[in-house]
Structure to design on (137 residues):
């Protein structure tokens, strides 16, 4: 739930920057890239300090770099969808960005929660507990 709230905060930041830069004369793809980096940074900080604060990734800078690289998967899909919607379907760039954002949300959550804030030794039993035997009913 917190991840969705953080994403909900990042969406207007992304769209606001995208709109402001594009309407100031930048090509919408260049504006989108800048907006992605800014929103990515805000989202990372909120996720780092609020959503996943008890889980891995103690180094802020190293964590942001990992987050940026891993988020690149979703960002690449997002940009591809946005361009497809604008150039092929003729949909306004802001609406295209919003549609692409919602389409990529699940992929982004799955990727960043697994590779950025995964718990260390997730399959290792806690001390004093019996290891799981997968063959038992």
């Amino acid at each position: 739930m917190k991840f969705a709230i953080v994403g909900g905060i990042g969406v207007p930041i992304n769209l606001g920057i995208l709109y402001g830069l594009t309407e100031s004369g930048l090509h919408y793809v260049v504006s989108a890239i800048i907006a992605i980096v800014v929103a990515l940074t805000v989202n990372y900080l909120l996720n780092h300090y609020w959503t996943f604060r008890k889980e891995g990734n103690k180094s802020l800078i190293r964590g942001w770099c990992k987050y940026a690289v891993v988020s690149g998967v979703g960002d690449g899909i997002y940009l591809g969808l946005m361009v497809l919607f604008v150039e092929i379907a003729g949909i306004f760039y802001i609406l295209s960005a919003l549609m692409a954002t919602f389409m990529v949300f699940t992929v982004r959550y799955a990727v960043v929660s697994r590779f950025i804030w995964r718990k260390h030794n997730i399959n290792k039993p806690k001390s004093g507990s019996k290891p799981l035997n997968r063959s038992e009913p």
About this structure: Residues 10 and 39 are 5 Å apart (CA to CA). The longest helix spans residues 60-88. Residues 2-115 form one domain.
